[in-house]
Amino acid sequence: MLAVSSSAVLVRWADASPVALAFWRTLGGAVLLAAAARRSTAGPSRDQWRGIAVAGLALGVHFATWLASLELTSVAASVTLVSTAPLMIAGALAAAGRSPGPRTWTAIGLALAGTVIITGADALAGGDGGSSNAGSALLGDGLALVGAAAMAVYLLTGDRLRGSLSTADYASRTYGVAAASMLVVAVVLGIDLVGYDRTTWLAVAGMIIGPQLLGHTVLNLLLRRLGSVTVSVALLVEPLGAATMVWLLFGDVPPLGAWIGGPLVVAAVGMQITTTPAADRSRSHAVDRKVQG
Asked: Structural domain tally of the chain?
């Protein structure tokens, strides 16, 4: 999560569109992991390729819709709504016949409450951007929810495939599909992907090594052991980690809400990790496979 949270710092150093940064980080991750993926004795089956395509497109949709929502609605609304991914995953498990335990639901509720406090305080402090047009804000809210659903699909699909594919096999191909989808978005929107200064390219390299390889790839590795619910709850630490890093490096003191809501998010992650026994994780994986079809 430290690696994932470093994305906010690197974005501030980079003079490039967030869509371009998402393209380069996923492409770089795919290329660097490709060599390790080639060492596998057998490539993915046709069914596994379908799952990889779904996961990669879901990751691309998550990036595209969430970044777009930030331009249309308030940051507080966007962050809060995109943070409902754990709730969607838990709901999918419940619909499949195995609802998470009460402590998991409590952890999700605690994490969402902490996120609302953090983002709400930022809005009240005047640090919130976004459109003032009601129609645009409603569209932005909808895109943020789509981004949350896409992240839920990405994690559920990865949880299923990680039982039969190595991390390198799964991640390299998924990142490649995500990069292709971000390339389409960049072309449609006319976003420049090259011509950056040295600092921006160094930031891009940092995003590939940090948020992508040490962040998302490690989360994909942990899906097999922790399950999609726990990983999605852990992702809610990102805003807190990002705010802390920005504070330490740039001197931007987090608002009061971060000091109140932050501990709630951390407590929620701790509760979820320490109360999910190995047996429940195995059963959760079986249900996730059922949800994905």
From this structure: 1
